[in-house]
């Protein structure tokens, strides 16, 4: 074998080992987030009526919906923590450039994590969460055998019809607003144009909702904190306390 072919083979093997290592690291990180989100959801999940029924089918549906919701929450938590993780990993690499044990925090791993979060975010938003909702509400088509697969078929059909309805409404709205042939053909570029911007639009609505709810949450937090905390004696008005004491003494003397 020629030296050039040996070098190329060595480079391919090195790239393969790096890809395998990145896949293992991503799987471990997601597994940790999934376990954490599972404990969070099971802690705050309400015990509804259908979970109390001793039915294997309802219990299986509940477990599947719980798994989908846990997966979505893990993806959302990963999206929130990805930017701090990228900044911290960059600072660690700049502080210890020669350390062998932290070289796995490289740019390729961060880029792969960003791609996976973007892919799973769109998949959770478009498919997993609507599927989990319709799956818990489904009962199977009339005349079909009862079971998990009957509910899966009904959920898939309902989700497909909902997708077609939403796309048709968007297509009609785009054609009415644009009123030209280019706007009518715009939805053919769904994968290249609309789907990548869907995540940004949902993120924008989430930020607006956060800005709307944050002031009320802060005011409630300060109100609860003010009720729980004891006012320090250094800030008390002694003259006011003396006046109150004199009024109480006068009231007691008047009653006597």
From TrEMBL:
Primary localisation category: membrane
Highest taxon in the source lineage: Eukaryota
TM annotation in the entry: 24-44, 64-88, 108-136, 157-177, 197-224
Compartments reported by the entry: Cell membrane; Endoplasmic reticulum membrane
GO biological process: receptor-mediated endocytosis; Wnt signaling pathway
InterPro entries (alphabetical): LIMR, LMBR1-like_membr_prot
GO cellular component term, pick one: plasma membrane
Membrane topology: Multi-pass membrane protein
Sorted UniProt keywords: Cell membrane, Endocytosis, Endoplasmic reticulum, Membrane, Receptor, Transmembrane, Transmembrane helix, Wnt signaling pathway
A Gene Ontology molecular function term of the record: transmembrane signaling receptor activity
Family as reported in the entry's similarity comment: Belongs to the LIMR family.
Protein's name according to its UniProt entry: LMBRL protein
Biological source species: Promerops cafer
Gene that specifies this protein: Lmbr1l_1
């Amino acid at each position: 074998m020629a030296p050039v072919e040996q070098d190329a083979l060595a480079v391919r093997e090195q790239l393969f080992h790096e890809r395998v290592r990145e896949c293992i690291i991503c799987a471990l990180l997601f597994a940790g987030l999934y376990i954490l989100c599972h404990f969070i959801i099971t802690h705050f999940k309400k015990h509804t009526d259908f979970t109390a029924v001793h039915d294997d089918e309802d219990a299986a549906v509940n477990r599947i919906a719980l798994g989908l919701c846990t997966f979505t929450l893990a993806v959302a938590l990963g999206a929130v923590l990805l930017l701090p993780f990228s900044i911290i990993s960059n600072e660690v690499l700049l502080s210890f450039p020669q350390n062998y044990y932290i070289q796995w925090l490289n740019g390729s791993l961060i880029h792969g994590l960003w791609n996976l979060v973007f892919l799973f975010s769109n998949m959770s938003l478009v498919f997993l969460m609507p599927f989990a909702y319709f799956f818990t509400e489904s009962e199977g088509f009339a005349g079909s055998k009862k079971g998990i697969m009957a509910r899966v078929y009904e959920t898939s059909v309902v989700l497909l019809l909902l997708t077609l309805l939403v796309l048709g409404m968007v297509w009609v709205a785009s054609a009415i607003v644009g009123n030209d042939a280019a706007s009518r053909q715009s939805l053919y570029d769904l994968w290249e144009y609309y789907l990548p911007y869907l995540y940004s639009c949902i993120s924008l609505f989430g930020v607006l909702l956060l800005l709307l709810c944050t002031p009320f949450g802060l005011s409630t937090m300060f109100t609860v904190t003010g009720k729980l905390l004891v006012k320090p004696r250094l800030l008390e008005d002694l003259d006011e306390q003396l006046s109150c004491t004199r009024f109480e003494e006068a009231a007691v003397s008047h009653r006597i």
